[in-house]
Amino acid sequence: MFVFESDNYIGKKFGKLTVVEFKGRKEIKNDGKRKRFMQMFRCKCECGGERIVALQELQSGKATRCKKCKPSKLIGRVYGKLTVIDVVRKAHKDKKTKKQWGALLKVRCACGNEIIVHASALTNKVSPKVSCGRC
Ligand SMILES: [Zn+2]
Ligand SMILES: [Zn+2]
Predict the structure, then answer these.
(1) 104: buried, middle or exposed (CB in 10 Å: 19+, 13-18, 0-12)?
(2) CA 109 to ligand 2 center in whole angstroms
(3) Considering 34, 70, 107, 125, which has the largest number of Cβ atoms within 10 A of its Cβ?
């Protein structure tokens, strides 16, 4: 028999989400057929936000961040050999210094190497960065 050990998941990381608490089971309707249950977990996001997510969503990779961290439009874009896989830092203006900070992106090169680059390095019309520099 399958025994569900909710404790096994506490502290695990799925994307930006870390499982902090088991919230119980939630019944989901399945077209009047057999009842199904989802294990719900409270997760803490790297941004400080929280989200209650079903274990299935975590395991399938559907839920990797809280709702506050909307996936950036940049993720999935391809620049030469580089594909954007994550936003390390969003573009923002520092309120104190009034300095404008560009976005920092994590990109995966066609060779498998992952590097962090400034968004401007990819979108620069004059000389865009199109590979990781190692290949
Ligand atoms: Zn978040
Ligand atoms: Zn490369």
Answers:
(1) middle
(2) 5
(3) 107
